Amino acid sequence: MLYIENIHAGYGPKEVVHGVTVQVREGQFLGLIGPNGSGKSTLLRVAGGVLPFSRGSVTLNGDDIRKIPKRSLARTLAVLPQNFNVDFPFTVREIVAMGRFPYIAFLGRETAHDLQIIAQAMELADVTELADRVITELSGGERQRAYIAMCLAQEPSILLLDEPTSHLDITHQISILDLIRSLNRRQGLTVMAVFHDLNLAAEYCDNLLVLNQGKMDAVGPAQDILTAPRIAKIYQTTVYIEKNHVSGKPHIVVSAGTSSFCKE
Description:
By secondary structure, the protein is of the alpha/beta class.
């Protein structure tokens, strides 16, 4: 379990997150939503042990995350940052193999067990057929699956994702999120992910955490969180909420000319 309590964090003298508390239960798929600049990526980086915090605490299975050695932490928790990209001509297999760094000694080589885990990670992420392809020659969706396979090679129990479907078309968005939810449901992988698309967040997440100006506004199931009044308050935009007749989840309908920019 990942427990974030009363976190204050930011960059230099600028505090971005102010007193956020949230518990990420084992096997949960938690979505972070909120306007640009609301602190979503900052909170995710704090949760992953990447960004220091000035006040509060983050514990992983009861242990202070700051006291867990980085290699040990990487065996439990994998982080895929926003716009992560590799611009060198590594093959997909080499990219995925990078996920074994917490287990391989400095200047060491992969064991038969490491190679087996790498192969399993590629299979789970559906990139086995791309193993010998160069990462720079792949489409955005193929690259994202390769990077997720790299995270899976760490054998984590928690996966933190910052906008995993940004810059992808709808086909690749659904493909990536179906993969993540499948890992969440079948492998018991705990997922905490930042979303900008509220409808995708509603469809895939168990619970949503709403951030606004660095503070927690609400947390709970999509049907409780995604209401027209809350969205109007947080996003300064008038929307209509209807029920997705396939999934039963709330679906947000927008109309041109309803944002605060169109008001006199």
